[in-house]
User: What shape does this take?
Amino acid sequence: MTVSMTEIEIESFDGVRIRAYRSSPATARGHLVIALPLATRPSLCARAIASLAGELDVVTWEPRLILEPEVALRSRAALAIEAHVKDVLAILDHLGIEQAALLGYCSGAATALYAAAENRKRFCKLALVSGAYFMNPDRCEHTQYERDVLALAPSIAADRTQAGRLFSQFFSGNRGFRRRDHELADEIYRPYDNPESFYRFGVCVDNFMRGDPERAAGEIVAPTLVTSGALDDQTHPASSALVAARISHRETYCDPQGDHYELCRANAGLMTRVARFVASA
Assistant: This one.
């Protein structure tokens, strides 16, 4: 199941062009903005978007610059947390949306968390799904994938030359990593398609590692749904639990059989829970 979305090009605060997408059905009862994971496109969550777009005006966008190696990256600051947050506001302003519910998935949950913390009047609900918050390992348990990413990102972000060497070592050609049999391989491995996107992804992760998600969580005032999966081998549910514990008005759910990709599959139980939460008074 898919839904037709209108592509809209928006100029953000610093002149970067953002590709946004909007379903805008005539019967929409409210607005839902979806913050995608870094280095992904809306097709990753097409089934979830289709599930939600029947009742809601769904808006999403491609995270800035990572998958556009042909567009100049003028500074590391262009991939800072603040830049991603300002993109959300630029999209809302361009579309004339005063207030919306906000859903963040994976690393998009970190973007959504910071956006909601800093712009309380713009977001009436917050849903954080299988969040990747790039917390320090001494704060909570991590998966092996998280440990690898946190260890490698600063080296990737150090400079393009070093990033290029690491790309050649681990990801170029048909190495084992790229041959992994995964149902969403074409979607989730996009940052490993070329050395420049790989470098930019590393810079993004390194910037997010410098954030403080626990502080941001403590500043959330919107009713919040935090979901995770007990079988998630990408982002450990412990980080979701730690974030949830800092939020005053929260509802939590950990799917005992869920992994990291239930939203991408539009898992019926998860989608029902999200839709009910967003629609509730």
Q: What stands out?
A: The beta strands are 6-11, 17-22, 31-35, 57-61, 100-105, 123-129, 224-229, 250-255. Residues 119 and 127 are 15 Å apart (CA to CA). The chain has ten helices and eight strands. The first strand starts at residue 6 and ends at 11.
